[in-house]
Amino acid sequence: MAKIEKLLVSLFFFAVAPSIVLVDADFYKSMYITWGAQHASLQGDNLQLVLDQTSGSSAQTKIPFLFGSIESRIKLVPGNSAGVVTAYYLSSTGSQHDEIDFEFLGNISGQPYIIHTNIYTQGNGSKEQQFYPWFDPTSDFHNYTIHWNPTEVVWYVDSIPIRVFRNYENEGIAYPNMQGMKAYTSLWDADNWATRGGLVKTNWSCAPFIAKLNHFRARACKWNGPVSIQQCASNITANWWTSPIYQQLSYAQLGQLNWVRSNYMIYDYCTDTKRFNGQMPPECSKPQF
């Protein structure tokens, strides 16, 4: 009986807590097209982004969030996608913005995509990690999830963690926990840097380039201004993302993470001593997982 009562209380908190939003809807209800409307299609639970020489396209959520789990299934541009970037990320606004990125860098036919990740805190980025996918991201949809809570940010691909950024704010290292962020997705031309540092340019004879997305879900805390900082970070029943199970990866998840890093990581800013002239970012000396 006690277990049933505890479950009912938990469900009650989840149902009535004003800061909790479960966007268990479709793309159409959750997002709107921000630019390139003539190049995008938003129908039900399906979003299609198109890029040609005239324009790319983009969409964003109607509301911002602070902490939670943001996910979507994406099927990337097939064929020769050199110079083309499909972006899926969270971001606040302004010069001191926070941002958590998935960017998928296209390549010439037969070469692998690059999964480019980054995080900005108070306007500062330069925290890139890059990976090759262990599958063909153009042949089918794959799930890409950003899990963000007061303790850590975790990037997942098909439920496998590929990267962790932990909160060391008490040691003077900035962490994204003070600004609500909307979810964005876009398809755009970045041939000045995306493929081999810009050496391979976009082949417009392959246009239009098309990326497809579906199953957008945001189990997250709605941002209502500064009052949300305490509400969304508090360890109450409704805020499932603050529970101990989400404060650190499990032993099995750490095994998956190390497998990805050992076999598919191609760049880690924390090992790029030349770039930082030996003065590495302070978080690089901390336990990463």
Reconstruct the topology from this structure:
Layout: H1 2-16, E1 20-23, H2 27-30, E2 31-35, E3 40-43, E4 46-51, E5 57-61, E6 65-75, E7 84-91, E8 99-105, E9 114-120, E10 129-131, E11 142-148, E12 152-157, E13 160-166, E14 182-189, E15 209-222, H3 227-233, H4 251-263, E16 265-268
Antiparallel strand pairs: 1-15, 2-5, 3-4, 4-15, 5-14, 6-11, 6-15, 7-8, 7-14, 8-9, 9-10, 10-16, 11-12, 12-13
3D structure, described in words:
Strand 9 and strand 10 form a beta hairpin. The protein has 289 residues and is mainly β. It has helices at 2-16, 27-30, 227-233, 251-263; strands at 20-23, 31-35, 40-43, 46-51, 57-61, 65-75, 84-91, 99-105, 114-120, 129-131, 142-148, 152-157, 160-166, 182-189, 209-222, 265-268. Strands 1, 3, 4, 6, 11, 12, 13 and 15 form an eight-stranded antiparallel beta sheet that branches.
How many individual β-strands?
16
Element pattern in H and E: HEHEEEEEEEEEEEEEEHHE
What about the largest sheet?
8 strands, antiparallel
User: Shape from CA axes?
Assistant: globular
Which residues form runs of ≥5 with pLDDT under 50?
Answer: 1-18
Distance between the termini: 38 Å
Q: DSSP strand (E) fraction?
A: 35-45%
Portion in helices: 10-25%
Structural class: mainly beta
This entry's quaternary arrangement is single chain
Output the number of helix runs.
4
Q: Radius of gyration over alpha carbons?
A: 19 Å
Q: Would you tell me the overall average pLDDT?
A: 90
